[in-house]
Fold:
Amino acid sequence: MIKKIRKAVVAVAGSGTRLLPATKAMPKEMLPIVDKPIIQLVVEELVAAGIEDIILVTKWDKKPLEDHFDQNWALVNELKKAGKEELLEEIKGISNLANFIYVRQKGPYGNGTPVLSASSIVRDEPFMFVWGDDLVKSKIPFAKQMVDDYNKTGHLMIGVQEVPLDQVHRYGIVKVKKGTMQIEDIIEKPSAEEAPSRLADFGRMILDQEIIDILKQTALGKDNELYLVDALKTYVRNGGKFYAKEVQDGEWLTTGDPLNYMKTMLKYAFDRKDIGPEMKRFIKELLKK
Structure:
């Protein structure tokens, strides 16, 4: 019997060094996409997939992120007095999006560590694991696409998106069995000649206890980091079925560097009915100059 996915682990312990000095005193996940922080967009996507418990794996300087999902009674009272009812309901709704659990990251540096840090909370349950600064803009929230697929098949999976051939060296590229999306291997940052496909993996996964158990036994990799992909590759080599899931009617957007952050900001702004048309006119005028 397939267990319901109720929990998501969100990795938010990174320092955001590529966005310094903006991230010197502000978590990168709190940077705005127009008027919502990145992390809120991630959480809203997870909630739309039926996730009830959101486990944010943090570190010492992430308190603004925790505060964002808490009630701000001073602000609530201020909005009440000003009669700003619509904004009041929106602000009150943020803390009610889900049950938020905060865990400090412990262990070696690496993208596998957040999974281990939250392992006692997701014990024996399938769960989603996401990067806190990766967004997927799609008609149907991508987390829901993944959960719906899991409910039908029971397959563990990772989100993938085709990238240009000249960019495969920047990502983990998946090799799939011919005619299927079942993963045979994941090659980290291959050259264009070595790449088995143009499908780059990104920060959306459905994992389970078996992956956690393998990760606990996984040796540290390059630069003494714990890599989740090493555990996934072991799982596949041991006969586990792991699948690639492409985004339908949408695209993965990364916000981890200035250029991609600005591209993402514009794409969200253009789709806004209140500011989109004016933003498009503004960009056209800039290009003319």
Remarks:
- The two ends are 61 Å apart (CA to CA).
- The chain has a mean pLDDT of 93.
